[in-house]
Amino acid sequence: QVQLKESGPGLVKPSETLSLTCTVSGGSNTDYYWSWIRQSPGKGLEWIGYIHYSGSTNYNPSLMSRATISVDTTKDQFSLKLNSVTAADTAVYFCARHTGSYAPFDFWGQGSLVTVSS
Amino acid sequence: EIVLTQSPDTLSLSPGERATLSCRASQSFIRSYLAWYQQRPGQAPKLLISAATKRATGIPDRFSGSGSGADYSLTISRLEPEDFAVYYCQQYVTTPRTFGQGTRVEIK
Predict the structure, then answer these.
(1) pLDDT tens-digit map of A63-114
(2) Pairwise CA distance, residues A5 & A92, whole Å
(3) Residue from A1, A34, A43, A47 whose CB has the most chain B CBs within 10 Å, to mutate
């Protein structure tokens, strides 16, 4: 059974960079797509972007190029960096797997709460 | 961006009753790339239905999906205690992927 687990700081200061890592276990990460999704009370569920194990990416334009997703296949990990954060970026961040670029999210991590505050 | 509008916001029902949840898209899909998820408090969303009608692995057959074009539905034929949760629809036909605002199914 595939398992995903998010890790990273729970508190980030305004204007700084949010960094999260998702570690995948229980299966191969080749030929899959890996997304970051966040959930906040104000905006509900919001897809941030995805990466394929080959390194190709696709992002939500609403984030205005602040997000960068990368993959480290040697460590079975993929990461999110979101720069110039504000309080509006406070959310629970999930990583999730999908089997194709046009596929639903079939496995999710438990989520990681990130609060943006000074 | 495709906007998904779910209705109702809250559904108050008793165990054993039938639940019907709606998801309407701001534009019609050529392909029914529409999924449904269940989210319990403190947990991640769980995939129930993909491609509008296909149950995910291990999902009981009391959950069924229907619809095409811009209108989709999730039906729970007989509510079990563990089914009281929030349900989201999500489209994966265009970028950005988007979710509905959710329907809460609560115990009456």
Answers:
(1) 979 999 999 888 889 999 999 999 999 999 999 999 999 999 999 999 999 9
(2) 13
(3) A47
